[in-house]
Write a structure and sequence with these properties.
- The complex is a heterodimer.
- Chain A is mostly helical.
- Helices cover about 85% and strands about 0% of the residues of chain A.
- Chain B is mainly α.
- The chains are: A mainly alpha, B mainly alpha.
- At the A-B interface, helix 1, helix 2, helix 3 and helix 4 of A face helix 1, helix 2, helix 3 and helix 4 of B.
């Protein structure tokens, strides 16, 4: 299987997972964003929101990394610039969810 | 090594229609949503600063600007959810006819506004 096909399959699988996760997250975000500190910490530090938020971050950043690299493929002409941009977005998509998950798993009221 | 892959022409070349509008909006809103998710990650990180310091963030989120940002985020998430479902239907081979494509494009635009209102009302337990 060529890389482009693998990338397309990863993109579509992550997209199928992302649709219900985004719907779940935005409904809960609107419910809690203006609540007290304790309410918000309880939300992020208890199950199933602890697991689902962590999972959302992994899938969303993975999906974004793939789709933004497609944008780079379409619009960046210089191969060196494209390579650096792809490496930067991949690093960003690994570091941000990783730090967030570590924080979520260390939250206590 | 030179790469002779064709590149997409830039967006100003195209004449606008529903499909192209949704296509470029899907990309722009996807980028906006990942920036928003990064800010949400920052918001989660700021919880580590403790309850006293969180009062400033709570004050901002309860302000008009804070509520406007959350409502805008609800719309951008709603838009991406509907647009993503439209793309998934295409991947299974449905909805390619010109008229169907225009109708589903309009559903994405107006449906995202309706979905935003429904999510907000449901989340705030207004109904």
């Amino acid at each position: 299987m060529i890389n482009a096909t693998k990338k397309w399959i990863f993109l579509k699988v992550s997209s199928i997972i992302l649709v219900p996760l985004m719907a779940w997250f935005i409904i809960n975000l609107v419910s809690i964003y203006d609540k007290s500190y304790v309410d918000i910490v309880i939300f992020f530090s208890t199950q199933p929101s602890k697991f689902l938020t962590s999972f959302l971050m992994i899938v969303a950043f993975f999906y974004s990394s793939l789709s933004i690299s497609e944008i780079f493929e379409d619009y960046i002409h210089d191969e060196k610039v494209k390579s650096v941009a792809n490496k930067a977005i991949t690093t960003f998509a690994i570091i941000i969810p990783l730090i967030t998950i570590i924080i979520i798993f260390n939250l206590t009221t | 090594m030179s790469n002779n892959n064709p590149l997409s022409p830039h967006i100003q070349i195209y004449s606008w229609n529903i499909s192209s509008l949704i296509s470029i909006s899907h990309r722009i809103i996807g980028v906006i949503n990942i920036v928003a998710l990064t800010l949400i990650c920052l918001w989660i990180a700021l919880l580590l600063l403790g309850e006293t310091n969180y009062e400033y963030i709570k004050f901002f989120l309860q302000s008009f600007l804070g509520k406007f940002l959350i409502l805008s985020l609800t719309w951008s998430f709603s838009f991406q959810i509907l647009s993503e479902i439209r793309h998934l239907f295409w991947d299974f081979g449905y909805g390619f006819e010109l008229i169907t494509s225009k109708i589903t494009g309009l559903i994405v635009i107006f449906g995202s506004i309706v979905l935003t209102i429904l999510i907000y009302l449901y989340s705030k337990q207004i109904f």
